[in-house]
Amino acid sequence: MHDTEQTHPLRVPKRMQQPVQLGAAQAESFAAAFERLASAVDTVVLGKPEVVRLALTAMFAEGHILLEDVPGTGKTTMARAIAAAVSGQWRRIQFTPDLLPSDVSGVTIFNQASGAFEFHPGPVFANIVIADEINRASPKTQSALLEVMEEGRVTVDGRPHQVPQPFLVVATQNPVEMDGTYRLPEAQLDRFLVKLSVGYPVEAAEIEVLRGTHQRSPEQLAAVVDTDTVAQMAEMAKHVYIAEPLYAYLVQLANATRNHPQVAVGVSPRGLIALTRAASVFALSQGRSYIIPEDVKALAGPVFAHRIQLAPDAAMRGATGAQVVADAFDQVPVPLPSAAA
User: Where is each ChlI/MoxR AAA lid domain found (predicted)?
Assistant: First the structure.
């Protein structure tokens, strides 16, 4: 029997397994689609191309994004722009101190006409969920996102309900030092693949914002890809080639954070898996079907830093998770090109 199956540039054949390397054409198609999406978001979020690309990397790695910065720097605008550029269903949840868990996940209500209980899904049932100012809600409400972020489902009254796929949470939060905020628990921080800071725009970009000449709202942004394409691109990232020495390199970096003298709790296995997935997407966004050490270095800070719990005395001295990650790279030797090939 002749094989008549044709491979779409952005689709992985069903027969393909992990050891099989993607072709150059598929990697280039991924990079082209990634760049179109990033360029579209760049028209709304001016002067932040690196942050935009890191956020999109997290999306295609099937992770969740935490944006932390002071108010007014464009956190929500970036989240809405990403949602608009993907033609899927999206919802926005404004977290407040009086928000209840059922306001997020949904609630079961008795229908007198039918004589049965019916589940009314909450705003978390969407492809992209924008959790705005997530740390202004109580810890009980914050925990309502734990199950859905990890397993893609919500359990209400003992019954599981699957959320649409692909599923992405883009959460924004204000710095914990600000009034009216609750610190996110470590278990929930570990669910976010990356933690990013938008930061203040550069002078030229801020001038353009004031002029309004190139300013666009997320509502004006036309969809670039649909949810099926996002799912296909995420599947491609699972087939990126990783040389054996790079697996050891990743584990050694994680161990370096765990054994750091200023760290109470280092990077978890979940965090290590997250870095591997993110580096795979990053490699494809560069048009490569294989990971190199530079991909790991580019993603380690956003993926690792927020997962590291510092010892109390180190935190008081001003140490940061980013510094611990930098120390880990100084301690762990980079695999030689011949060994990583």
Answer: 256-326
